[in-house]
Design a protein that fits this description.
single chain, alpha/beta, Spore Coat Polysaccharide Biosynthesis Protein SpsA, Chain A, two-stranded antiparallel sheet
Length: 243
Amino acid sequence: MSKSPLLSFFDRSYIINLPERFDRRNQMKQELKMLGLSELSEEVIFFPAIRPTDKGEFPSIGSKGCFLSHLAILKEAKSQNLNNLLIMEDDLSFTRFLVKKQDTIVDELRRLSWDFAYLGHGVNWNSGGGQIFHEYSEPLALTHFFAVNKRTIAELVDFLEEVLKRPAGHPEGGPMHIDGAYSTFRKQHPEVITLIACPSLGFQRASSSDVTGYKWFERLPILAQPLGAARDVKNWYRRNFTS
């Protein structure tokens, strides 16, 4: 089985995927092949995403399911005493830059001190210089491609479990989107070191969302093919011209 330098660096890599989304699962397998991983292993797994029956005080059922899925992964990492873990969502695509620079990226992650490392994000920041990872303290709005180190996992699990117990809008953090919860945790723990990759090493593929739901026109059969073609073009552009 071929190896990926990036994925081999992490004790465990999780891909959050609703079991019925075979389309996204198959697309992610193709993405992993680009990194050099031809087969899945115990270290790279698809995690069955949680789909709750009600949204409770969360913004939506999808946001609650995403939150609970991330929490379940972190709890598993804590119980198995993992040194680090990588979390990916199933609509992730890797950039050409990442595919070509895996060894350089891993070398930096080994050398630098960090608690969170956002390999993919929505920050428009051209840092300049030769280094890929840079410290970042502002909120981050995406969680499709990021890593957590062992020294933060236990405290992060405790925080997320407290969020579930509080009402929405609580000043210390109540039910919210998982990206907001991570940003709230980071704000409350300024000692936590967060790195972001510049350029961003992965982006969310243009596709229908399980968190925000389908738009009305996505359900029309007559539009399915042109919408799919437009998304393919957008994804190709972002993969090849993100640098």
